[in-house]
Amino acid sequence: VQLQASGGGSVQPGESLRLSCAASGVFLSPNYMAWYRQAPGEQREWVATISIRGDLHYVDSVKGRSTISRDNTKNTIYLQMNSLKPEDTGVYYCSYDERYWGQGTQVTVST
Q1: C or N terminus of the chain, fewer CB within 10 Å?
Q2: Per-residue b or e along 29-52, where b marks 16 or more CB atoms closer than 10 Å to that residue's CB
Q3: Over 26-91, what HEC string results?
Q4: Cα separation, 106 vs 104, whole angstroms
């Protein structure tokens, strides 16, 4: 299984980004698909999860500003992030069941 994350970039506070994570290869449907992020000098932290049943969970710091979703026809998950803050800066990784990981996409929020 290969996960390819994309959609990162450099934006100003208050702007939005939509991250994508496309899966390829042969695999069973994962139980959980998730986004993590790692800020400079920090450990990787969990951001959001969508389960195979469609249950959604978010870390408190992004709740209300971000939406995780999936398109099963494209084997792709998304993370729509609105009202971005400088503390959202980091490398964002997607994961399937914490077993498969994408390469990360950089998000930088600054003035």
Answers
A1: C
A2: ebebbbbbbeeeeeebeebbbbee
A3: CCCCCCEEEEEEECCCCCCEEEEEEECCCCEEECCCCCCCEEEEEECCCCEEEEEECCCCHHHCEE
A4: 7
Task: Please tell me the predicted confidence (pLDDT) of residue 28.
Answer: 76
CA–CA dist 16, 9 (Å, integer): 10
Q: What is the end-to-end Cα distance of the chain in Å, rounded?
A: 37
Q: Which residues of 82-103 are buried (b: 16+ CB within 10 A; e: fewer)?
A: eebeeebbbbbbbbbeeebbbe
Contact 32, 50 (CB under 8 A): yes
pLDDT tens readout for residues 75-95 = 999 999 999 999 999 999 999
Tokens of 24: 């390829």
The 10s digit of each residue's pLDDT in 33-47 is 999 999 999 999 999
